[in-house]
Write a structure and sequence with these properties.
This protein is an all-alpha fold. 65% of the residues lie in helices and 2% in strands. The longest helix is centred in the first third of the chain and has 43 residues. 52% of the residues are buried.
Amino acid sequence: MRRFRLTEPLVMLATVLQWLVLAIFTGALVGAGCTLFLRALFATEGHAYAAPWWVLALALPLGGLVNGLLLHYGYRLRRSAFSDNVIVAVNEQHGKLPFRTMWIKPVCALVTLACGGSAGKEGPCSHIGASLAAVVGRVLHLNPEMRKRLLACGVSAGFSSVFGTPIAGAIYGVEMLAIGRIRHDFLFPAIVGGVTAFEVSRWLGVPYPHYVIDFSGQFTELLFLKTVLIGVLCGGVAWLFVELLGQARKLFGGLKQRWALWPPLVPMLGGVVLALLILLVPTDYLGLSLPLMERALHGEAMPWLGFVWKALLVAITLGSGFYGGIVTPQFVLGAVAGGAFAHLFGLTPALGAAVGLAAVVAAASNAPIAAILMGVELYGADATLYVAGACVAAYLIIGHRSVYPEQQIAFSKSSWIFARADLPVGQEKVRLSYGLLRWWRMRRRSRKSGSGE
């Protein structure tokens, strides 16, 4: 035991040095790969906002068909049975991912966003990061535990590169793996890889925004409670988003099964529905919708139903089989909803939008710590008190739902709710705890006996 106590610091120093080398190398690789994707995205995305309807009516179904063909035939190239879902790869596959199909999701995302599909840009970057990290782990013949950590490092590097928030992106890549648990042994590689990827992408010319929000007023307990209430409302917005997304997947999956549709036709059908919807919905909600988010953060008044339109378009886009990211839509939903709700509590629209953005990410992704840090990195350190309560409140309000059906439940969010640990949210049947049910039954019996008397 004494010998171990003397040698332990040397072992931990070697661990730090080991992960510095591995994470810096992986982060640099991921930063370069994500920069290539983002450059291609900047050249193709954003044209749908001003396009005439007939162009979108042709582009959206065609984009859906291309997505369907790529996903249907592209995955036949893989030689293994491994899933390319990054959460599954870490939680169940010991850090292994198929490499031959790495290009499919980034290309599909470019097609989705170029034709006007409503989705995000971070999903392809996290996929690129995970795939490149998996290759590094395989080439170096790392053991399964180290490959898991390195793959999580790659995911974090991808998020950091696309968000422009290196610490929040790094934490998000770890926190998204499970509800209620963070693998602290993943944090050092994730942060080193995330910072490296961010610096590489910035050095290669990727622009990152920083939003100026006025937090200069005196912070009071009443103001804190107002931000918490915005968080509660934004938790409801995230709940609506997750439910719409789930229902859209069931609807299009049911249509495919009932009518025996050729799989590439399903996203094409989704493109037709999107084309019809934009006869009623402004084209601002297509694509990434970043101009809409920026207007909300600059204090422009937001429509009451804006978040509903965005959630609906994203649900149809991704639920029908288009591929794209799922976090950028959360930014837009939060900013639009927060800006619309702000005046209910006497807050400025810009402040409401800033708080709402972080709160929806905390809820829909079940990543409150990453969301708080994201608010700090996007708006400055003064934002901490404003976003913290809102993020945690939103995280609780949404319950055990997630935009990631593969996300595992490590711990229940309430002592009144029972959820079996280490099952994905898409499989676990969350229910009221036995103690609460017993209390409720006893109360009902006492009421019945009292009325009988």
